[in-house]
Amino acid sequence: MYSLEACLLVSAILFSAGVYGVLARRNILIVLMSLELMLNAVNLALVAGGRVMTFVEPASAHTGQIFALIVIAVAAAEAAIGLSILLLIWRRWQTIDLRDLCRMHS
Amino acid sequence: MSDFLTTSLFGASATVAAVCSLLVVTRRNPIYAALNLIILFGAMAVNFWLLGAEFLGFMQLLVYAGAIMVLYIFVIMLINPRDDRLPDEGGMAERGVAAGVAALIFTLLLTTIQGADLTWIKEKLPAATAFRESRDAALAELPLLTREQLIESYGLTESEAEAALPAAARRSSLEVRARERVRTDYQDQVKSLAIDFNTLDADAARQLHGTEPVFDGQTAEEVWATHGQTRSFGLKLFTDHLLVFELASVLVLIAIVGAVHLSLRPRRRKRAQAAEVRATDLPLQPEEATHV
Question: To the nearest whole angstrom, how far is the Cα of B175 from the nearest Cα of chain A?
C-alpha cells in the first residue's frame, strides 16, 4: 500500500490537477497557485524516488531531498516575481482576468 | 512507527492532498483556493516526514505554507477582488478541453509509472532475497552434464567431449529450457514486488554497498544515525551539491531584486504622469478608474 507507486500516483494526481487549473482558469491568482501545486507534486516524486535511491545506493542519500529544496527555492522566486507582475497588472488595468491580458497586443 | 500507522498516515495525507488539489483548481474565490492550498502543503509536509525527509517537511511548512502562501493571501487582500469583479470562468467546452488535456497527461504519467522497469531496484529489496535463494537452489538442483555423461550418452570421443564442455552445448535442451523457466519465474516474482517504504531497510542496503566517509571519518548514514537527518542533509548539501545551492541563492537574490523593482516603480512616477497613464490605458473598465 505505502509503496513508491502509490507516492508517484499521488504526485500524478496533483500534477494533473495543476495542469487543469493552469488551462481552465482565467483568474491569474489561481493559475499561479496551480503552478505551485505542480511544483509540489514534482517535489513529492523527487523525495519518494530519493528515498528508494537511498536504499539502492546509500552514497546518493538526500539527493532527491536536495533537489526538492532547490525546487522550493525556485517556487519562492516564481511566486515573488509572479505576484509582483500581478500587482502591476492590477494597478494598470484593475483586472486579474487572463482574457483581458490577451487584448494587450492590440 | 508501526507499519500500519505509517500506511494509514500516508493514506490520510494522500487523500487530503488529492481532494484539496481538486478544490484549489475549482474554487471561484481565490481566498478559498489559497486556504485549500495551505491544507495541501500541510498534508505534503506529513508525506515528507513519512518519507524520512524531516528537514524538507519543516521547510515545506516554513517556506510554502508560511511565506509563499502568506504572500498570496496578502496580494489577494491587497487587490481585494469583490465577487462581481472576479473573472468569469470559461464555459463547459473550455473546461472540458482543459479536463481532457489534464486527463491525458494523467494517463501518460500513470502508464509511465506502471510500465517503468524497476527490476534493478526490486532485486535489492529484502523481500527479493527469498526469491533469489529459491532460484539459486533450483538452478543448483538442475545437473550440469559431466565429461563422462557426454561420452556415454552422446557418444562423443574424449577430445570432442573436452572441446564441447566449455561451450553452452554441454547442456541438453531440456536443461536449458528448465533453467530459462527458473530465471523467468524469478524475474516475474521480482517484478510483482512493490517497492514498499515500510520494508526498505537501510541496514540491508549498507551491507550491500560500502560508502565513502563524508565527515569526520563517518559516512552520511552514520552521521544520519548519530546526529540526525538534518545534519547529514546539510553535509550533503554543502559538499556534493554546493554549486546548485549557490545557483539557487543567486536565483532567489535576482527574484528579490526583480520583485522590489517591479512593485516599487509606480510610486516613483509623478502623480500627473501616473494619472495620465491611467486615463489613457483604462479602456477595459473605465468605470473603475476612480478606484485607484
Answer: 34
Which residue in the block uniquely carries the three cell numbers 517556487? A75
- How far is Cα B237 from Cα B251, in angstroms, rounded to an integer? 17
Nearest to B202 among A32, A55, A97 (CB): A55
- The Cα B281–Cα B289 span in angstroms is 10
Cell of A44: 513529492
pLDDT in tens, B47-80: 999 888 889 999 999 998 889 999 999 998 888 7
Q: What residue of A is the nearest CA neighbor of B276?
A: A92
pTM of the model: 0.79
Can you read off the three cell numbers belonging to residue A100? 483581458
Size of interface A-B (CB pairs under 8 A): 300
ipTM: 0.92
Give the chain B residue nearest A25 (alpha carbons). B89
Q: Determine, for residues B79 and A26 on separate chains, whether the beta-carbon distance falls below 8 Å.
A: no
User: What is d(CA A70, CA B2) in angstroms, rounded to the nearest whole number?
Assistant: 31
A61-101, pLDDT tens digit by residue?
788 899 999 999 999 999 999 999 998 888 888 888 888 77
In angstroms, rounded to a whole number, what is the distance separating the alpha carbons of residues B277 and A84?
19
CB A55 within 8 A of CB B52: no
